Structure formats: structure tokens, C-alpha cells
Amino acid sequence: MKKQCMSFVSLLLVLMVLLSACGINDSATQASGPQVRMGLSTFIDTSVTIQQGQSVVLVDTVSSTHIITNGTWDGSTPIAKTEAGAPKINATVANANQQQSIGPFTSPGTFQLYCTVHPGMNLAITVK
User: Fold this and answer.
1) Which end of the chain has fewer CB within 10 Å, C or N?
2) Does the domain spanning 31-127 belong to CATH 2.60.40.3200?
């Protein structure tokens, strides 16, 4: 019985290691582009200018869940809206130092994104 328990525990440990390895962010393989930092309930960087064809990398600086999508907050009212030429964004970032690439942005213009969780958390991306 003791040998079976040890085998079972060993198998569980191997499975845990394999599963956790799937969630590791390898910075060498992450998309490049300007970074936009997010704090507890705000964008630390509220706007960014990029070149046509670039992506933006969202970086959570704390462990706070952010759900980023197209649109903006108008006071305490969320306004979901995708501007013509903007990629459809639906990104969840929830862990400290987690990075999520959004884009690429292939059309010039200014595009609005917001966090559906935190009122007033808006981001403007200008594409040149």
C-alpha cells in the first residue's frame, strides 16, 4: 500500500510539473511591440502611439484581473464599440508580470480600449 501511495504521489508531481510548464511565458517567444502597463485598476500608460502593423503588449504590474476589449468608459457607463479598422480585442490579463499581445493594428487611426472590470480604465492606441 505504501509503495502504491508513493507511486501515485510521484505521478501527481510529474503531472503538476508538466502542467505548470504549459503556463510559463517565454519572453523570447512573446510578440514584440510597445508595452502598456496596467496597475490595480488603471492603465499606467493611458495612451500609446505605434506604427501600422504593430501589436501592443499589455503588462499587468500587479495581480489584478483585467478584461480588455474595444470601447471606452464614459463616466461610469461602459460603451462597447469597435472602430472601423480596429482588430477585435478580447484579452484577459490577471497575474503580476503577465503579458498579453493585442493586435496587430493594420489601419491608421486612434482606437479606444477599456477594461470591463474597472470603471474609467481607458486606453487610446494611435496607429500612424
Assistant:
1) N
2) no
